Amino acid sequence: MRKPASKLKGTVGGLYRTEGKGFVTTSVETLELGFEGIAGDEHGGPTRRTGGREPWYPRGTEIRNERQLSILSAAELGEVARDLDIPELLPEWIGANLVLDGIPRLSHLPPRTLLFFESGVTLKVDGDNGPCRLSGRSIAAHHPGREDIEFSFVRAAKHKRGLVAWVEKPGRLSQGEAFEARLPEQWIYDPA
User: Fold this and answer.
1) CA 80, CA 23: separation in Å to the nearest integer?
2) What is the reported pTM?
3) Domain interval for residue 177
Protein backbone atom coordinates (compact mmCIF):
# COMPACT_ATOMS: atom_id res chain seq x y z
CA MET A 1 0.00 0.00 0.00
CA ARG A 2 1.33 3.43 -0.92
CA LYS A 3 1.88 5.95 1.85
CA PRO A 4 1.44 9.65 1.12
CA ALA A 5 4.37 12.05 1.44
CA SER A 6 5.03 12.87 5.09
CA LYS A 7 7.27 14.89 7.41
CA LEU A 8 9.18 13.93 10.57
CA LYS A 9 11.15 16.19 12.91
CA GLY A 10 14.44 15.52 14.66
CA THR A 11 17.67 17.04 15.91
CA VAL A 12 21.38 16.61 15.25
CA GLY A 13 22.77 14.52 18.10
CA GLY A 14 26.35 14.38 16.84
CA LEU A 15 28.66 15.55 14.04
CA TYR A 16 31.85 13.75 12.94
CA ARG A 17 34.56 13.85 10.31
CA THR A 18 37.67 11.91 9.42
CA GLU A 19 41.09 13.16 10.43
CA GLY A 20 43.59 11.99 7.83
CA LYS A 21 43.29 8.55 6.25
CA GLY A 22 40.80 5.88 7.19
CA PHE A 23 37.09 5.94 7.86
CA VAL A 24 37.11 6.30 11.68
CA THR A 25 35.77 9.74 12.56
CA THR A 26 36.22 12.36 15.29
CA SER A 27 33.48 14.40 16.99
CA VAL A 28 33.20 18.07 15.94
CA GLU A 29 30.81 20.94 16.82
CA THR A 30 30.12 21.99 13.21
CA LEU A 31 30.47 20.55 9.72
CA GLU A 32 31.02 22.62 6.59
CA LEU A 33 29.29 20.88 3.70
CA GLY A 34 29.86 21.64 0.04
CA PHE A 35 28.60 19.90 -3.06
CA GLU A 36 31.50 17.46 -2.55
CA GLY A 37 30.33 16.60 0.99
CA ILE A 38 32.87 17.31 3.73
CA ALA A 39 36.01 18.78 2.14
CA GLY A 40 39.02 16.59 2.89
CA ASP A 41 36.91 13.81 4.44
CA GLU A 42 37.65 10.21 3.50
CA HIS A 43 34.22 9.91 1.84
CA GLY A 44 34.11 13.43 0.36
CA GLY A 45 34.18 14.29 -3.30
CA PRO A 46 31.75 14.53 -6.20
CA THR A 47 32.81 11.07 -7.41
CA ARG A 48 34.17 7.91 -5.84
CA ARG A 49 35.72 4.59 -6.86
CA THR A 50 33.61 1.43 -6.86
CA GLY A 51 34.23 -1.46 -4.51
CA GLY A 52 32.43 -4.59 -3.39
CA ARG A 53 29.07 -2.81 -3.14
CA GLU A 54 28.95 -2.38 -6.94
CA PRO A 55 29.75 -5.82 -8.41
CA TRP A 56 28.33 -4.74 -11.79
CA TYR A 57 31.40 -2.50 -12.35
CA PRO A 58 35.07 -3.42 -12.26
CA ARG A 59 36.55 -2.36 -8.91
CA GLY A 60 37.96 1.15 -9.06
CA THR A 61 35.50 2.47 -11.66
CA GLU A 62 34.78 6.17 -11.08
CA ILE A 63 31.09 6.86 -10.36
CA ARG A 64 28.95 9.61 -8.77
CA ASN A 65 29.45 9.81 -5.01
CA GLU A 66 26.05 9.21 -3.46
CA ARG A 67 27.81 8.07 -0.25
CA GLN A 68 29.24 11.46 0.83
CA LEU A 69 27.76 11.20 4.33
CA SER A 70 27.09 8.37 6.76
CA ILE A 71 24.05 9.06 8.96
CA LEU A 72 23.31 6.99 12.08
CA SER A 73 20.75 6.76 14.87
CA ALA A 74 21.87 6.53 18.51
CA ALA A 75 18.88 4.27 19.24
CA GLU A 76 19.83 1.85 16.46
CA LEU A 77 23.48 1.85 17.59
CA GLY A 78 22.23 0.85 21.04
CA GLU A 79 20.22 -2.02 19.56
CA VAL A 80 23.25 -3.27 17.62
CA ALA A 81 25.46 -3.04 20.74
CA ARG A 82 22.93 -5.15 22.69
CA ASP A 83 22.80 -7.71 19.88
CA LEU A 84 26.61 -7.89 19.88
CA ASP A 85 26.66 -8.11 23.70
CA ILE A 86 28.96 -5.10 24.07
CA PRO A 87 28.42 -2.12 26.41
CA GLU A 88 28.47 0.52 23.66
CA LEU A 89 29.03 1.12 19.98
CA LEU A 90 30.37 4.59 19.33
CA PRO A 91 29.44 6.20 16.00
CA GLU A 92 33.07 7.22 15.41
CA TRP A 93 34.15 3.57 15.24
CA ILE A 94 32.07 2.95 12.12
CA GLY A 95 32.66 6.22 10.28
CA ALA A 96 29.58 8.26 11.19
CA ASN A 97 29.27 11.84 9.97
CA LEU A 98 25.89 12.60 11.57
CA VAL A 99 23.92 11.05 14.38
CA LEU A 100 20.28 12.08 14.17
CA ASP A 101 17.80 11.88 17.03
CA GLY A 102 14.01 11.78 16.94
CA ILE A 103 13.38 9.62 13.87
CA PRO A 104 12.17 6.11 14.70
CA ARG A 105 13.75 3.36 12.58
CA LEU A 106 16.02 5.87 10.84
CA SER A 107 17.69 3.19 8.70
CA HIS A 108 14.32 2.45 7.10
CA LEU A 109 13.82 5.92 5.62
CA PRO A 110 13.32 5.45 1.89
CA PRO A 111 15.60 6.70 -0.87
CA ARG A 112 14.77 10.24 -2.05
CA THR A 113 13.95 11.40 1.49
CA LEU A 114 15.15 14.99 1.91
CA LEU A 115 16.61 16.24 5.20
CA PHE A 116 16.06 19.99 5.62
CA PHE A 117 18.19 21.49 8.42
CA GLU A 118 17.38 24.79 10.11
CA SER A 119 20.73 26.19 8.87
CA GLY A 120 19.54 25.77 5.27
CA VAL A 121 21.54 22.61 4.49
CA THR A 122 19.64 19.95 2.55
CA LEU A 123 20.76 16.31 2.30
CA LYS A 124 19.26 13.72 -0.02
CA VAL A 125 19.10 10.15 1.24
CA ASP A 126 20.39 7.61 -1.26
CA GLY A 127 19.42 4.60 0.86
CA ASP A 128 20.37 2.38 3.75
CA ASN A 129 24.02 1.69 4.47
CA GLY A 130 24.74 -2.02 4.35
CA PRO A 131 27.00 -3.13 7.23
CA CYS A 132 30.43 -4.43 6.31
CA ARG A 133 33.26 -6.39 7.90
CA LEU A 134 35.53 -3.32 7.90
CA SER A 135 33.19 -1.65 10.39
CA GLY A 136 32.95 -4.90 12.35
CA ARG A 137 36.75 -5.07 12.49
CA SER A 138 36.87 -1.49 13.82
CA ILE A 139 34.39 -2.34 16.58
CA ALA A 140 36.29 -5.54 17.44
CA ALA A 141 39.48 -3.50 17.86
CA HIS A 142 37.76 -1.75 20.82
CA HIS A 143 36.76 -5.07 22.39
CA PRO A 144 39.89 -7.27 22.76
CA GLY A 145 39.13 -10.97 22.56
CA ARG A 146 35.97 -10.38 20.51
CA GLU A 147 37.28 -10.98 17.00
CA ASP A 148 33.88 -12.56 16.23
CA ILE A 149 32.43 -9.03 16.04
CA GLU A 150 34.03 -8.53 12.61
CA PHE A 151 31.54 -11.02 11.16
CA SER A 152 28.64 -10.81 13.63
CA PHE A 153 28.32 -7.04 13.13
CA VAL A 154 27.17 -7.61 9.54
CA ARG A 155 24.18 -9.67 10.76
CA ALA A 156 23.45 -7.58 13.87
CA ALA A 157 23.47 -4.24 12.00
CA LYS A 158 21.41 -5.28 8.97
CA HIS A 159 18.80 -2.53 8.47
CA LYS A 160 20.20 -0.69 11.53
CA ARG A 161 23.47 0.63 10.02
CA GLY A 162 22.00 4.01 9.10
CA LEU A 163 21.82 5.81 5.79
CA VAL A 164 24.09 7.24 3.14
CA ALA A 165 23.29 10.64 1.67
CA TRP A 166 24.71 13.38 -0.51
CA VAL A 167 24.62 17.17 -0.24
CA GLU A 168 21.86 18.77 -2.27
CA LYS A 169 22.25 22.27 -0.73
CA PRO A 170 25.54 23.16 1.02
CA GLY A 171 26.10 25.06 4.25
CA ARG A 172 27.14 24.54 7.86
CA LEU A 173 25.56 22.03 10.24
CA SER A 174 25.75 22.53 14.01
CA GLN A 175 25.39 20.21 16.96
CA GLY A 176 21.81 20.26 18.34
CA GLU A 177 20.32 21.77 15.18
CA ALA A 178 16.72 20.87 14.29
CA PHE A 179 15.79 19.30 10.97
CA GLU A 180 12.78 18.01 9.10
CA ALA A 181 12.77 14.77 7.11
CA ARG A 182 10.43 14.94 4.12
CA LEU A 183 9.56 11.48 2.91
CA PRO A 184 8.31 11.09 -0.66
CA GLU A 185 5.16 9.19 -1.44
CA GLN A 186 6.32 5.61 -0.95
CA TRP A 187 5.55 2.07 0.21
CA ILE A 188 8.71 1.24 2.16
CA TYR A 189 9.03 3.16 5.43
CA ASP A 190 6.71 2.51 8.37
CA PRO A 191 7.63 4.41 11.56
CA ALA A 192 5.68 1.96 13.76
Assistant:
1) 19
2) 0.91
3) 11-46+62-183
